[in-house]
């Protein structure tokens, strides 16, 4: 049983799911997606199950994303499995967002890409001090998916835009400040949380019982949020209409408290896939006005073009296959990405009729 990629157990009317590929940072495979979805569906219809706890095995990661190397090989072999993976992964993520019972996600270590897709749908997201959370896709020539166009675009101000187009990771205080987490629990308290879960009497609604328990265990003292300190600069620069304007504004930053950050941010943008950076900005701007379902549908629309016409195959080759760390992006510079090129990827997409931002 310990060899299974997903472990499932029931204790005290709680279903426990553990991503069980610690050597691979619990990266998601297609079998894992299917096991998770099947088990969640079974527990949704079981009146004996009141809540679900989701976690990753090991100390390094909750989940560091999808199995990118496998997706690369699938596309090369033209077996269609990479497309199946995205369809089923997004369906799982969307299912978690609407799950009829509270899902408690215990987030420790890396929570990246596909891990964010699982976590952001959970009713309660608990982060340890070791969390490194983010959507780093632009670094491999891809764009924030798994609902990233929904949850990033709904972060306060322009925080989600900044995280999406730069691909930076954030720590627990920033995750809480940005609305990507609900509670901070020191990692040494995770075992105590499990003991308490095993002894809960369920005298009130499960969601209320879980929130009350977390409130009694949560750390009261947190480090300061770096995003909070940077918020005035982030909102000013990343609200601009396009990447060219954002870069020019960052280059013109003269306030001493933001100058080093602006230089670092420019360096990050220059090191990412130019096409992915520009497409991500457009994706997040569109995502603000779309429902959750339409965000997933739009991401899938982009997926079905990106392996052939985007930068992901070159990014994975350079960073994971040949490891020369010298991707040949197409085009090679941010200044060479035209608005027309970006818009071609969105052509033909139509949101569901009748959906509005308020309904999202």
Automatic annotation (TrEMBL):
Q: What is its EC number?
A: 3.1.2.4
One GO term under biological process is: L-valine catabolic process
Give the UniProt keywords, A-Z.
Answer: Hydrolase
Domain annotation Enoyl-CoA hydratase/isomerase: ranges:
14-346
Swiss-Prot/TrEMBL catalytic activity: 3-hydroxy-2-methylpropanoyl-CoA + H2O = 3-hydroxy-2-methylpropanoate + CoA + H(+)
Keyword Hydrolase assigned to the entry: answer is yes
Q: Which GO terms describe its molecular function?
A: 3-hydroxyisobutyryl-CoA hydrolase activity
Q: Name one GO cellular component term.
A: cytosol
Q: Which PANTHER family match?
A: 3-HYDROXYISOBUTYRYL-COA HYDROLASE, MITOCHONDRIAL (PTHR43176:SF3), 3-HYDROXYISOBUTYRYL-COA HYDROLASE-RELATED (PTHR43176)
**Record NCBIfam families:** PRK05617.1
Report the protein name in the record. 3-hydroxyisobutyryl-CoA hydrolase
In its UniProt entry, the species of origin is given as Azotobacter chroococcum
